Structure formats: structure tokens, C-alpha cells
Inverse folding.
């Protein structure tokens, strides 16, 4: 992040010094925003950090600093939940990437601009569609008394929406559109000439994809993948409204611990789990941003 | 392309796979919606009935929870725009050094999942009764958690809306020359507030609407923070009612979906090619 500051500085400073007058009060307008974020976001963040590293002695009420919460957050049921979340997010994101790519390609190479517009607009809407209504739509479709479950007798065939794969199918509903939105600009950037050049050199369609298109798309694909992973990883409402806490997911564990559904005194472990989540999400962003920049090199 | 003989097989094959891919996608995305509607009108043993929809208005808690969500949304939109618009305009005009700072600050909520945010928020709220019960500050803690209008939710939603509002306003400001516009207005004798309100804001109309709609959709659908802090706006109410009245809760979901989608679609067509994408799933 600091690199961005130094990079942008000379030009911006020069631009600012040309017109001196507005500069004086400029930062004043930014102060309320920063103050607000410090209060509404910074305070909880500090509280989370502090809580993750403290324990309160139930007898004396004294608090002391420790890494016990962090250690507890990567053990036992919490570790299972964390791995469950990672596995669910990875599988859902991987599937969404694999399924979203052909859909995006179908739209990009389509001869009908109206189709393209419709799919992209719908994707924008669907990518924002998560949470409670999504869960209920799938409960009504594939749940125990859902329409498809009843019509096709899926329960007898071993179908269970409230399972790992059930959740994957539900998550795909907002992850695939997100993938389409993420990858479309990259697919747009593939030059027709590249394909023609490959064909003139005798390459088959498969060879073109393996040796030209996919390597060029790789950073965008990976970037999309981690973005989807982060999105699925942070999701809570869908799973909570659908399965309660029957599937081990870290978001559900945190919610349980906060609301005191499990053991008393686990609140700080919940904060440690939250910190784990933030670290993973931060890692995702740290992977995503450089990839984003890298993909711009070929596809600008 | 047409003149290349080797190109023909490659151009013919997509004619087959493209409709197939689109049909599969259409099926996957439309079936749950259709099934939800069928689920609400086709009650086993009763046949087709629209009771689920006609009951909605009369159901206990529907009006109050919806009103609460709408009030929260209005307050959130007002606060987020009041904070962001002056800041973003000022960044363009005279404080470019702060631009990366604001960019990072507005991207931070994306790195912190809502559930982690609410865990921290809940901890802060507990400080009130634990440490501050003898100070006047305690009254503030009580006031922000007033169940009739939980200000703490507005604070949380503003933070969560920051990334989207930032993106929307940034796109809007990029499309116009703020500096020239303000200088022109100033040369014509306008003072600063006049220049902002009469020259800059009308040009930002699209971006402002964009921000407002995205924030509205976010607040109406938000479940995590409200539920864990123990408040009962719309999304929490639907989940609570789903246990006893499955048909009704799906019916309300379908309606709220249609309203949200109509809003976002209107926004998409209004904003032309402006993307409404975000990573706010679930």
C-alpha cells in the first residue's frame, strides 16, 4: 500500500501545487470520514485484537494477556470448523470458476449484444444475491419438502440439501455470476488475432486454449478464484438460515460463541477465530491485488 | 475470420456448445425462483392458493420490521453520503495526498468479514455495562442500542457500505472534471457550498443514485450484524417467522427479491454500463 503512495506522489503534488487555494481546507472534508471509520470500525477492530489475546480469570475478574485463545482457535471443534469453511469455500469457488468460464465465454463470443447485456446485468444482480432469500429459495426448491424434492422423490435417492454438497450448490448461485463478472473483461481482452495466428500455424482449438488463452487468462482466473473464495468464506447468513449449525463452518462457530450458545467464556475464542478469519481474508486480498495488476499487463 | 479455411471448424463448434451452456445456466438460475413461487402457491392438500401472499401484511411483526429496515436504510444512506461526498470531492480538488489513505480505509471493510466485525462490535458494546456504568458515557451506550432505532446498526451499515459507495462515487467523479467545474462556478460568483450543491452534485446524480440503491439493497438484506446484536429488522424477522410459517417466509423472500432485483435492474439500465457487482454474497 505504501508503494502506491510514493508512486502517485510526485504527479499529484505537482498538480496540487499549481492551484494552491483549495488545498488548504481540502483535508478538512476528509476528517469526518476518517474520524467515523476510526470510531465505528477501528474501535471494534481494536476490541477484537485485544480480546483475542486476553483471558479473564472467572474467580478474580482480572484479565491477562495470553495466546491461549489463539491456540484454542486452531484446535478441536474450532479447527474442524475452520477446515470445513476452507474446504467448502475452495470447492465452491473452484466449481464456480470452472462453470463460470464457459458461461462468460459463451456470452463474450455471442453475436447478440442484447444477450450479453442481459447476462451481465443479471450477473450483477445475482452476485449481490446472498443471504436469507437465497437460502429460502433453495429450501423451497430442494429442501426436505421442496418442490423438486417432492416431484422427483429426491429424498429416497439420498439427496440432502442440508449437507456439504447442498451448501456448495446454493453458494454457486451467487459465485458463478461473480465469476462471470470478474472474468468477462479478461475474455474481452483476448485478441481475435491471437486465435487467428494460432490457427494459421496449424494449432487446434484445444492447443490454442492450452498454450495461448489460458496462460494469458491465468492471473485473472486465479484472481477471480481467490475473490470467490473470500466471498464464500465470509458468508454467514445463507448457511445460518439454511442449516443452523449442523455443518461445521467457522462463521457459524463464531456466531454460536458470541451468542453464548456453547460454553460461557468462549467469547474471546470467538474473537480469536474472527482474527483468524481476518488473517485469511487479508491473505486472499494480498494474493488478489497483485494478480489483478498483473492481468492488466496483457489485457489492457 | 470468414476467409480463413482452417477457421471454419472452430467457428462451427461454438454454435453447439453455446446454447447448451446458456440453457444449463438458465435452468440452474431460473428453477429455484420458479420453485419458490410454486412452493408458496401450491400447498400440499389444499391446492393452489394465494393465502401466503395475502397473509403477509397482517402477519405480526412484518410492518414494524420492514419499517425499521427502511428507516435504518434511510439513515445509513444519509450518513454515508454526507461523509463520503465531501471527502471524495475534496480529494479531487485539493487533498490528493490523502487519496490512497481513503482508498485503503474504504477497502478495509472488505477484508474483515461481517461476522468478525460484529464480534468486535459486540465486544465494544459490552464495555458499556462493564466499565462505564458510572459515567455519563453509559447513557450513550444505552442510546445507540435503543431497539426502536438501533443507531449502532447504522454505524455498522455505513462501514459495510463504504467500499461500494467509494467505488460508485469514484466512477462518477472520474467521468467529470470536478476542478474545472468548481472553478467555473466560483468564477461566476458562487461560494463553496453553492458550487458543490449546484454544480458538482447534479453531475454526480447517477453515482449518488447508484450508491443509494446499493446501500438500500445492503441494509434491506443484512442479517448477520442485526441478528447477532439482537435486533429485529426485516431479514431477521423472515428467518424468525420461517420456523412456524414456511410458506409465508418464502413468499416474503420472493417479494423482497423481486423488489431488490427490480431496483438493481432499474439501476443497471439507468446507469448504462455501470457495474453493480460486489462481493457481498451471504
Amino acid at each position: 500500500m505504501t508503494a502506491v503512495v510514493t508512486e502517485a506522489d510526485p504527479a499529484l503534488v505537482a498538480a496540487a501545487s499549481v492551484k494552491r487555494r483549495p488545498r488548504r481546507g481540502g483535508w478538512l472534508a476528509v476528517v469526518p470520514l476518517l474520524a467515523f471509520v476510526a470510531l465505528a470500525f477501528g474501535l471494534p477492530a481494536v476490541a477484537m485484537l485485544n480480546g483475542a489475546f486476553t483471558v479473564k480469570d472467572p474467580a478474580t475478574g482480572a484479565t491477562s494477556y495470553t495466546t491461549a485463545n489463539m491456540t484454542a482457535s486452531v484446535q478441536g471443534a474450532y479447527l474442524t470448523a475452520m477446515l470445513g469453511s476452507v474446504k467448502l469455500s475452495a470447492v465452491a469457488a473452484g466449481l464456480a470458476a470452472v462453470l463460470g468460464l464457459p458461461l462468460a465465454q459463451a456470452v463474450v463470443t455471442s453475436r447478440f449484444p442484447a444477450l450479453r447485456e442481459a447476462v451481465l446485468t443479471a450477473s450483477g444482480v445475482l452476485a449481490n444475491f446472498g443471504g436469507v432469500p437465497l437460502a429460502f429459495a433453495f429450501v423451497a426448491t430442494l429442501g426436505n419438502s421442496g418442490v423438486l424434492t417432492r416431484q422427483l422423490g429426491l429424498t429416497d435417492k439420498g439427496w440432502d440439501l442440508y449437507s456439504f454438497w447442498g451448501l456448495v450448490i446454493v453458494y454457486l448461485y451467487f459465485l458463478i455470476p461473480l465469476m462471470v463478472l470478474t472474468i468477462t473483461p479478461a475474455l474481452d481482452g483476448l485478441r481475435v488475432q491471437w486465435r487467428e495466428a494460432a490457427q494459421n500455424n496449424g494449432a487446434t482449438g484445444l492447443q490454442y486454449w492450452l498454450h495461448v488463452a489460458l496462460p494469458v487468462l491465468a492471473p485473472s482466473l486465479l484472481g477471480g478464484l481467490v475473490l470467490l473464495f473470500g466471498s464464500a468464506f465470509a458468508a454467514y447468513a445463507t448457511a445460518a438460515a439454511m442449516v443452523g449449525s449442523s455443518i461445521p463452518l467457522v462463521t457459524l462457530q463464531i456466531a454460536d460463541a458470541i451468542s453464548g450458545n456453547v460454553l460461557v467464556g468462549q467469547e474471546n475464542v470467538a474473537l480469536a477465530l474472527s482474527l483468524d478469519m481476518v488473517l485469511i481474508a487479508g491473505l486472499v486480498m494480498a494474493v488478489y491485488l497483485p494478480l489483478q495488476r498483473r492481468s492488466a499487463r496483457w489485457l489492457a | 475470420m470468414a476467409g480463413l479455411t482452417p477457421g471454419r471448424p472452430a467457428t462451427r463448434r461454438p454454435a453447439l456448445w453455446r446454447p447448451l451452456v446458456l440453457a444449463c445456466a438458465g435452468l440452474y438460475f431460473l428453477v429455484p425462483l420458479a420453485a419458490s413461487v410454486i412452493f408458496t402457491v401450491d400447498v400440499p392438500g389444499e391446492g393452489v392458493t394465494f393465502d401466503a401472499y395475502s397473509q403477509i401484511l397482517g402477519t405480526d411483526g412484518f410492518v414494524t420490521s420492514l419499517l425499521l429496515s427502511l428507516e435504518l436504510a434511510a439513515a445509513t444512506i444519509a450518513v454515508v453520503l454526507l461523509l463520503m461526498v465531501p471527502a471524495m470531492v475534496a480529494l479531487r480538488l485539493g487533498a490528493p495526498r490523502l487519496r490512497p489513505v481513503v482508498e485503503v480505509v474504504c477497502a478495509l471493510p472488505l477484508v474483515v468479514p461481517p461476522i468478525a466485525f460484529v464480534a468486535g462490535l459486540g465486544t465494544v458494546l459490552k464495555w458499556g455495562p462493564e466499565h462505564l456504568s458510572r459515567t455519563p458515557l453509559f447513557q450513550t451506550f444505552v442510546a445507540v442500542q435503543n431497539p426502536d432505532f438501533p443507531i449502532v446498526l447504522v454505524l455498522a451499515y455505513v462501514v459495510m457500505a463504504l467500499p461500494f459507495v467509494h467505488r460508485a462515487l469514484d466512477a462518477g467523479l472520474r467521468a467529470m472534471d470536478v476542478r474545472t467545474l468548481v472553478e467555473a462556478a466560483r468564477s461566476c460568483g458562487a461560494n463553496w457550498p453553492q458550487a458543490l450543491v449546484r454544480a458538482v452534485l447534479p453531475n454526480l446524480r447517477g453515482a449518488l443514485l447508484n450508491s443509494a440503491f446499493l446501500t438500500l439493497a445492503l441494509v434491506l438484506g443484512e442479517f448477520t450484524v442485526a441478528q447477532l446484536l439482537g435486533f429485529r429488522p426485516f431479514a431477521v424477522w423472515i428467518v424468525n417467522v420461517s420456523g412456524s410459517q414456511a410458506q409465508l417466509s418464502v413468499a416474503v423472500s420472493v417479494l423482497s427479491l423481486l423488489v431488490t432485483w427490480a431496483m438493481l435492474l432499474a439501476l443497471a439500465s439507468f446507469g448504462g454500463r455501470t457495474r453493480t457487482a460486489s462481493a457481498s454474497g451471504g
Observations:
- Chain B touches chain A through 104 residues (CB under 8 Å).
- The first strand of chain B starts at residue 42 and ends at 43.
- Residues 1-12, 273-282 of chain B have pLDDT under 50 and may be disordered.
- The longest helix of chain B spans residues 62-93.
